[in-house]
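hey so u asked for the seq, here:
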Amino acid sequence: GRNTFKDSTNGCTVISPLVAVNHLQSEGPGISDMKIEQVIDDIAPGVLSRVRRKLGLSGTALIIPSDVHDFMVDEKILKQEMFVGVCGGNLLDSIHVNEFLNLLESGEEEQPNDSREEKKDTSKKVAAALFFHEHVISILKVVLPDGTTWYDLVDSLPTRVTENRREAMGATRTRCKDRNSLQTLLHWYACAKFSTADIKYIDANEWDDHMGMFDPRVFQGFVWKGA
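ran it, structure tokens below
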């Protein structure tokens, strides 16, 4: 949808979890497009300025996602019991990505040596903030009345979109009808972000967990579930 992005520039670190929490609190299958626009234009700027004040950051400084998570829990925007887990790694590695998708699909963290055969409750809405390449997007698990689950990728970055034959700058919402489609979308999203220098680095270097923070493939995902 169209929006002005007037006071939420560089605020994706705040916008993404706000979209996530509003999705979890929404009626029905999930958050509406209108609500996403409201989060970006009206809700995020005030929260963003409070986060920056609390952390002592300038108006253009990049905000660390974990700091935003802590702020939102402290301010009771998010409840700690809604937090499922955090994971990360190489966004081009299906093993790393599947760990993230497992959290998103089940809404709970798998415990090591957990041999319980209990069927997991996958009927609750789940949402995540995904940090990649100095930008944060939202991944929303939409649950339909018949139990079918879809996944939406919401990106607040202004993108040129065509609406009623008119071009406008706006956030985007991309819908995946199953988990495999989301995995493909995330792979495409990652590749679209890489610069020529990134591609040279990737071609020359195998992934190394110890060097991850310097690697252009690195991602971090924070996952929450509905109460």
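Residues 1-6 have pLDDT under 50 and may be disordered. The helical segments are 12-24, 33-55, 65-74, 94-106, 179-193, 196-204.
lmk if thats what u needed
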